[in-house]
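Q: I'm building a small set of examples for a reading group on sequence design. Run inverse folding on the following structure and report the sequence directly after it, with nothing in between.
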């Protein structure tokens, strides 16, 4: 991933890592009551950008040449801001690497870097005060766009910061180079910046000595947090922003290389919104040949997304979303009277599974499921050694365990397709293309009919499952990854904790299931 995730077996490539109404009450003076706030909304945009790339990112260029290339991308940004302004957009997000591209070395990127003073120390409007600092052409253009569109604007660029050899962290060439997101308010003021913390094999950039916890305020939705691409999988700064700064909206520039079946861009973005009850405005770059596409405006309850491997062009997404996102609410499943849910609760309580207990009578004899237990097997999924069981028949209950994590599946399907699905578990340190500790329960459609095809990258499926998926996770940070046929997204019916297990429940899928997974991150173990 990157943020750039390289496809299975492929060499790691990069760098990586209607009628729109203005929101109500945006300009209202007095603070509104809590109920009114709930009803409020704002209009957000993300632009998936096919960036004009340097033909040879390793070559050394002049600042002039670098600016000529970046101007081509900034011209496209400006058109998008104009289009967005016509739709009443109040905040727009552009992707990581969208202006300068990727695959640079520390030296070859240098001409592409803007100088950037700290917004904490310097109040600066680059459009109105262009001569205050040298090497700030990109910041000036972005600031002018924010003014012209009269909207908050978030973009990603490379920045440089001179340092002295007395600074122990100062690199040998006397400067820091950062992968930086900048935030301009609608009057062009540079309000904040975020320097990427979890770099994804980006030789051109330095990790900031201290983590930026970047939060900016807006008149239409309050506080927004900022992070970039690969950061989404880590405690710092992501969880800290949610937990300690109580941020309910995230702007998220990314350059994400999709990796199925678990980590396509739109999959992790929407899972983030669901898991944390937050809105996330995610802008990816558009380079299908590198597996890079997938942007969205995701709320906990709904996603607006773009994922397109065929179309060579990017896209502007605009959506009106709640200023105060409402999550899945109370996680108390105990009161649920649905028969399959009662069965799930009985299984959780340790009752045996009975094949035909529609009347909830008794089970005949000893543990029926273990006698006919399907075979377990191993297959590699995203470079991790999963333990799996095949999902056979029209209904059933399965359990599979590894290293102290047990995953369970209770399922029913109206028609049995000829496809193979499997329930898999993995618990351990993921070490390829980034190192991070995970606990995963995953129901996936396999690439073919052989066990060895489970974990392959597929996007089409016909299986319409009604299911409960649960596991006894040791972490409370769990991403509910959910993907249906043709790269579409649906929301779980319910999810949450019940009896020390985390569960996800879904029935009446509208398209075939590709992946339903509980992707737990155990940050302390990284
Ligand atoms: C980036 O570099 C890799 C090799 O390191 C190459 O395969 C890939 O095509 C390059 N991508 C771009 C967009 O230049
Ligand atoms: C910008 O660069 C020019 C030419 O190198 C120099 O004369 C000028 O002092 C610089 N301005 C600032 C604000 O650093
Ligand atoms: C510009 O926007 C910033 C941030 O929203 C605000 O603090 C500042 O007062 C505004 N400046 C003007 C001149 O309106
Ligand atoms: C969950 O709901 C049930 C039934 O409505 C209720 O009896 C129980 O007290 C609730 N538990 C919690 C923790 O709220
Ligand atoms: C996966 O794990 C199992 C059980 O620990 C082991 O037998 C098998 O060799 C592993 N497979 C690979 C490819 O490492
Ligand atoms: C999960 O359940 C299995 C089987 O009951 C048990 O062996 C394991 O210790 C449990 N793990 C945790 C973390 O509770």
């Amino acid at each position: 991933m990157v943020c750039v995730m390289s496809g299975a077996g492929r060499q790691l490539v990069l760098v990586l890592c209607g009628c729109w109404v203005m929101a109500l009450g945006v300009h209202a003076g007095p603070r509104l009551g809590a109920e009114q706030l709930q009803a409020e909304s704002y209009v957000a945009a993300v632009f998936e950008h096919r960036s004009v790339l340097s033909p040879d990112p390793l070559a050394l260029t002049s600042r002039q040449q670098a600016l000529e290339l970046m101007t081509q991308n900034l011209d496209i940004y400006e058109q998008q801001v104009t289009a967005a302004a016509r739709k009443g957009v109040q905040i727009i997000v552009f992707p990581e690497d969208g202006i300068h591209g990727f695959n640079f070395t520390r030296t070859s990127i240098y001409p592409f870097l803007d100088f950037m003073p700290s917004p904490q120390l310097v109040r600066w409007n680059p459009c109105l005060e262009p001569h205050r600092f040298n090497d700030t052409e990109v910041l000036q253009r972005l600031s002018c766009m924010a003014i012209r569109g009269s909207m908050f604007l978030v973009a990603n660029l490379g920045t440089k910061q001179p340092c002295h050899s007395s600074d122990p962290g100062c690199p040998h060439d006397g400067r820091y180079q950062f992968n930086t997101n900048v935030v301009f308010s609608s009057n062009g003021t540079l309000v904040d910046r975020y320097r990427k913390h979890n770099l994804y094999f980006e030789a051109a950039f330095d990790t900031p000595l201290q983590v930026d916890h970047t939060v900016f305020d807006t008149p239409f939705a309050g506080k927004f947090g900022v992070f970039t691409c690969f950061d989404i999988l880590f405690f710092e700064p992501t969880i800290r922003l949610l937990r300690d700064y109580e941020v309910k909206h995230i702007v998220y520039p990314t350059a994400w290389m999709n990796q199925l079946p678990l980590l396509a861009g739109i999959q992790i973005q929407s899972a983030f919104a669901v898991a944390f009850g937050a809105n996330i405005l995610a802008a990816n770059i558009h380079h299908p040949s590198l597996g890079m596409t997938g942007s969205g405006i995701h709320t906990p309850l709904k996603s607006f997304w773009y994922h397109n491997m065929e179309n060579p062009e990017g896209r502007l997404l605009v959506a009106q979303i709640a200023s105060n996102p409402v999550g899945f609410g109370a996680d108390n499943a105990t009161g649920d009277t649905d028969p399959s849910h009662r069965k799930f609760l009985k299984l959780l309580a340790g009752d045996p599974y009975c094949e035909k207990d529609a009347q909830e009578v008794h089970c005949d004899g000893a543990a029926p499921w273990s006698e006919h237990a399907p075979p377990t097997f191993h297959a590699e999924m995203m470079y991790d050694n999963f333990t799996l069981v095949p999902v056979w028949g029209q209904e059933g209950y399965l359990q599979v365990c590894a290293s102290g994590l047990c995953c369970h599946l209770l399922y029913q399907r109206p028609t049995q397709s000829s496809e193979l699905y499997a329930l898999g578990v993995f618990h351990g340190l993921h070490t390829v293309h980034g190192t991070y500790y995970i606990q995963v329960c995953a129901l996936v459609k396999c690439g073919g009919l052989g066990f060895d095809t489970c974990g392959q990258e597929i996007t089409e499926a016909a299986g319409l499952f009604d299911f409960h998926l649960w596991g006894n996770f040791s972490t409370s940070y769990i991403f509910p990854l959910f993907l249906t046929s043709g790269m579409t997204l649906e929301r779980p019916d319910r999810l949450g904790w019940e009896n020390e297990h985390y569960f996800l429940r879904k029935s009446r899928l509208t398209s075939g299931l590709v992946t339903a997974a509980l992707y737990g991150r155990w940050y302390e173990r990284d």
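Helices lie at 34-39, 63-86, 137-149, 235-244, 265-276, 339-348, 368-371.
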